[in-house]
Design a protein that fits this description.
This protein has 80 residues and is of the alpha+beta class. It contains 2 helices and 4 strands. It has 2 domains: 1-37, no CATH class; 40-75, no CATH class. The chain is 22% helix and 22% strand. It has a two-stranded antiparallel sheet. Strands 3-4 form a two-stranded antiparallel ribbon. The mean pLDDT is 84.
């Protein structure tokens, strides 16, 4: 079992999905990822690989860096 000594990989155990589709994020996971009550989480999915949950503020920061591409002038296409 991964216990945190394997390059930041963790297995936090299992959770059950409630009748309303809710899950409880295990305490250790909340502590490691600094998830607090009221935080907004983004749920991403890949039908082949599964579901990922990320803090929305972390994802927002990445998205903003990506959008800075539009602040630059377009590069001329080279004629090769």
């Amino acid at each position: 079992m991964f216990d945190g000594d394997h390059e930041g990989k963790h297995i936090f155990g299992t959770v059950k999905v409630g009748e309303r589709g809710q899950i409880v994020i295990p305490k250790k996971a909340r502590e490691i990822f600094s998830i607090q009550p009221g935080d907004t989480l983004l749920v991403l999915g890949d039908e082949k690989r599964g579901i990922a949950i990320v803090k929305a503020d972390s994802f927002h920061a990445i998205a903003m860096k990506m959008l800075k591409i539009f602040d630059r002038e377009p590069e001329e296409a080279s004629e090769d």
